[in-house]
């Protein structure tokens, strides 16, 4: 279900179940969590195999939870934990979205640091049409990414949006024919600076604390990269 490949500074994690549009079961989620958690590479590129990025939770697995509230809640918590693992890893996680990203697939993409869509990518939270909603952190991240108004309209209608509208809403930051090129662009930079920037940009402490941490991190990097700075000046 999950394929892992490493090339230099980039670990590529592929959701590898194209016959099911890369829908995720408990085993798939667990394997994805392990693939992210075990990485030593500074950049992770997350993609789907075949014509879809990810259809979200496998509905057969969801149907098997009927009548068992505890197992249903456990399944939701597992998806939430995987999304947090993606969000909290020190690596920069780039989602390369080609084709549909639906439900939990979109939620996992929202947990990534950078989301790049191809012109053929589409996005949706269709669960509301059959009595569900995205419970892998989507109700937390959607308004943070889109803004509350767009998030409410998007989730309550269950409609799909194309790459251009996703770009306008902030769901993706670029439209590229080859999203992996953005992962390569990031990996070409000073790799020890990447996790520092991620921590600083994600810091939601009050401003004085953020600024103190920012200054300390800057001082550490100046010391670590003295020779690089001198080389630029030369």
UniProtKB/TrEMBL annotation:
Q: Which residues form a coiled coil?
A: none
A molecular function GO annotation: catalytic activity
The source's superkingdom equals Archaea
Q: Which PANTHER family match?
A: ENOYL-COA HYDRATASE (PTHR43802), IP11341P-RELATED (PTHR43802:SF1)
Write out the similarity annotation. Answer: Belongs to the enoyl-CoA hydratase/isomerase family.
Report the protein name in the record: Enoyl-CoA hydratase
Source organism of this protein record: Natrinema limicola JCM 13563
